[in-house]
Structure formats: C-alpha cells, structure tokens
Specification:
The protein is α+β, with helices and mostly antiparallel strands and 293 residues long. It folds into two domains: 87 residues, Phosphorylase Kinase, domain 1, CATH 3.30.200.20; 145 residues, 2-Layer Sandwich (D-amino Acid Aminotransferase, Chain A, domain 1), CATH 3.30.470. The protein is built from seven helices and 15 strands. A hairpin with a 2-residue loop joins strand 9 and strand 10. The longest helix has 24 residues. The chain is globular, with a radius of gyration of 19 Å. The protein binds adenosine-5'-triphosphate and magnesium ion. Magnesium ion binds next to loops.
C-alpha cells in the first residue's frame, strides 16, 4: 500500500517522545506534530515488524471521527503537517500526521464498554462488576451490557499495563465536576459512534478516549479516536454472545501470538508476512466500512 514508516527522523523539529505508535515533535511552544507510524504494539510491547500503511489508516479514521463530532472540542489545530517540516521530510509525515494543540493530558484513560470482553470480562468473572460498576449475574462472555458503562483506567508508565480504577478514584484524580464531564462526554461519544458503526456492520465493543485541558482549562478530546488500536471492533455478522468474536483489530495478531512460545516481554518476535497482511486487511476493512460514502 505504501512504504512503511517504522520510525520517523525529523531533524527540523525537537523530538518530544516516541510512544508505542506515535512519534511526537514540538512545533513552537504550544503545538505538537504527532506522526502515526506503522508500528504495532500488542500486550504493550512494540513489534519489530511494521504494518505498512497502518499509520495512514489510523490517522484517516481519527480524522473522520473528529469531523463527525465537530461540536466536541478537539486538539486539531488545522495546521498542515507538511508545512511544519523541511521539504525533504514531507514524505515521512504525509497522510499520517496531525499538528495538534499541546494540551495538559488528564491523568486517566476514559474507557467505555458496551460489551463484556478483555479486562472487563476478567473483572466481571472475579467480582461480578467492572471498576465497581455492578452488572447483572449470569452474563456470557461478549454479552451486550444493559447500558454502556464508563470504566476509567490509569495511564501506566512505559512498560506497565493500565490499571482499571473506580469512578471514585477518577473523581479524586480529576475533581468531581471534571470527572462527571469526562464520563458524560465519553458515554456520548461511545453511544453516538456505536449507533453509526452498527448501521455499517461494525460493533464497537469498547473504546478508550483521552482528554486534555487547553489554555482556557476546557476539556478537549485528544490523541486518536475510535480506531482499531483504541477500540475493539467486531463484525456484526459473526457476533454471537458466549464466544469471543473475530475482530478488525489487534486481536488477530494476539490470537496468532497465543500459538507462539513468546512470553509477552520484549523483544517481540517478527510477524510472518501473512499476519502482517491479515492485520492490514482488517484495519483497511474497518476504515472502509466506517467511512465509505
Ligand atoms: N493534544 C495532545 N497534547 C498532549 N499530549 C497528547 C495529545 N494527544 C495525544 N497525546 C499523548 O501523546 C501520546 C501518543 O502516543 P502513542 O499513542 O504512541 O503513545 P502510547 O499511548 O504509549 O501508545 P499506545 O497508544 O499503544 O498505548 C500519548 O501519551 C497521548 O496521551
Ligand atoms: Mg496511544
């Protein structure tokens, strides 16, 4: 699809950080250039094999959702990423980047779940609740919840896994009013996006949003939005409660990994070509279904 960008090298801007997937540079004092590379992370470990073109698909999908929710304040600046780098660096950022307002990130991940899977399913089996939100007994794996629930998590330090926290702890971290606002916004985003996706044959089982404060202390949607990296996307056609459905996201890679002897600690193994291609296909399919006109 395109040449892979595993790591960018933009000499004209100060490098701030390399996340698992994004390379982040400073643009002046109050903006960031965020480049979505083709890196893949699973189980919080970055893989040596890039998924060529994945970064562009993720960026396109986030852009779609930012536009879809245009009345919710977001971090996009409208500045063209190609205009902030040297001409010879444009190919690295093209179609996979955004110049964003540099926000003060709120110290939690705003997770919303509509279905019972992943760490939510684990919690439910152990305690009958997720993040202290109690649920009816007897639910099957992948069951649709009576209502979507807000189940925040802490942002883990590099190499650590995120930890689910109750709403009370979220309210301590953010203050009651902000925590209420983040919950309200997250649930609204999830409900409206999953209604839209459902019409296009995709179930959004769960997702994670990130918010930050802008200069006026306004809560602003940042990072990536409703992508297969930040969400579980299931094809509606093969959904069946009781079993973990096939998906449009990293689950495909995770399933392959479970057949390997890898201990989930770095270094991660090389991915076979078929797994790289299969992953890209799934991301492509999700983007197509959600954005085709
Ligand atoms: N507008 C913004 N202002 C400040 N920080 C931001 C903004 N948007 C996103 N970020 C931060 O930038 C980083 C994005 O990089 P990336 O997604 O690669 O990191 P990661 O979260 O370590 O990886 P993963 O998404 O796999 O968990 C995150 O730490 C995110 O919180
Ligand atoms: Mg991230």
């Amino acid at each position: 699809m395109s040449d892979a960008v595993f790591e960018t090298n933009i000499a004209s801007l100060p490098l701030i950080a390399r996340g698992k997937v994004r390379d982040i540079y400073a643009v002046g004092d109050d903006h960031l250039l965020m480049v979505t590379t083709d890196r893949l992370s699973a189980f919080d470990v970055v893989f040596p094999s890039p998924i060529p073109g994945k970064g562009k698909l993720l960026q396109a999908l986030s852009n779609f959702w930012f536009a879809y929710f245009h009345d919710i304040p977001n971090h996009l600046s409208g500045i063209d990423p190609e205009s902030v780098v040297s001409p010879n660096e444009r190919a690295q950022v093209q179609a996979r980047s955004m110049v964003v307002k540099r926000l003060s990130p709120l110290p939690l991940e705003a997770v919303v779940r509509g279905y019972l899977e992943g760490s939510g399913w684990q919690d439910y089996q152990n305690t009958g609740a997720i993040c202290g939100v109690s649920l009816p007994p007897g639910l099957q794996r992948a069951a649709k919840l009576p209502l979507p629930i807000f189940t925040p998590a802490t942002k883990a330090a590099v190499g650590d896994h995120d930890e689910n926290i109750g709403f009370e702890r979220a309210a301590k971290l953010l203050g009651q009013e902000r925590a209420d606002e983040v919950r309200h916004l997250s649930l609204r985003l999830y409900v409206e996006a999953s209604r839209y996706a459902d019409e296009r044959g995709i179930i959004i089982a769960d997702t994670k949003f990130e918010f930050g404060l802008d200069r006026d202390q306004r809560i602003t949607l940042m990072d990536e939005v409703l992508t297969p990296d930040s969400s579980r996307f299931w094809p509606k056609s093969s959904y069946e409660p009781g079993q973990s459905p096939p998906s449009f996201d990293k689950q495909f890679v995770r399933n392959w990994l479970e057949t390997q002897s890898w201990n989930k600690r770095p270094p991660a193994p090389e991915l076979p070509e078929a797994i790289v291609a299969g992953t890209l296909d799934r991301y492509q399919d999700a983007l197509h279904r959600l954005t085709a006109t």
